[in-house]
Design brief:
This protein has 226 residues and is mainly β. It contains four helices and 15 strands.
Length: 226
């Protein structure tokens, strides 16, 4: 069995969040403008479906994240990213980060993005983060407009979890998962996130070329020279 998504990358996010327990691989037909995840153009829908029916495809497992409050009052998952944002605060906020129990840094920024490899070409990329190969078991922490210019994005492979503590004595900050699950945390509260046991599965044609997708979607114009 397959699920067919007609839309853009956002449609896939809605699909996974609406049917989180469905394990069927997704055939992603791109009707949107970018389509890093939904990479089968609508103009190629019929020949592509024919190739899939003939078995000319592979299924790619994509990493997801899961997180919640320490008390587990809130539990959410993300396909692309988890964002902590200053919300109504008119100034920067301080977020202390621990990785697998070890202190990493305190970011003074508008917020932070923790993204999956799939999400590395979304909000994190716009905030200056790196692009990750979609099959890596890693995440990116990208600060949003940090006060200190040396606070750069970092790629991590957490064995357990990343803990974020909001330590500013200001108004609550907003936590959002893929822009769907949203809630506020107050000063002193700790939130944790890690790699989930859950994945989502994408169907790629055997001729699929991820680097070609990057070149096309990002407008890279470098030429191969002998």
């Amino acid at each position: 069995d397959f699920m067919i998504s007609l839309g853009g990358d956002g449609t896939i996010l809605r699909l996974v969040h609406t049917y989180p327990d469905v394990k069927a691989p997704i055939i992603a037909i791109n009707l949107g403008s970018l389509g890093f995840i939904a990479d089968i153009p609508i103009t190629e829908i019929y020949p592509s479906l024919q190739q899939i029916l003939e078995g000319e495809y592979r299924v790619q497992e994509r990493l997801m994240m899961a997180g919640g409050t320490v008390e587990e009052k809130i539990r959410c998952f993300a396909v692309n990213e988890m964002v902590v944002h200053r919300a109504k605060n008119p100034c920067l906020v301080d977020l202390a980060i621990h990785v697998d129990g070890q202190y990493l840094n305190t970011f003074s920024a508008d917020g932070i993005i923790i993204s999956t490899p799939s999400g590395s070409t979304a909000y994190s990329l716009a905030a200056g983060g790196p692009i990750l190969d979609p099959e890596l078991r890693a995440v990116v922490i990208t600060p949003i407009s940090p006060h200190t210019i040396s606070n750069r994005p970092i790629v991590l492979m957490p064995k357990e979890e990343i803990q974020i503590q909001y330590i500013s004595d200001n108004d609550p900050v907003e936590v959002a998962f893929d822009g769907y699950s949203r809630f506020m945390i107050s000063t002193g509260e700790v939130f944790h996130i890690g790699i989930s046991n859950r994945t989502f599965r994408l169907v790629h044609l055997k001729r699929h070329d991820y680097f070609s997708t990057l070149r096309t979607k990002l407008g890279w114009t470098g030429k191969l020279k002998a």
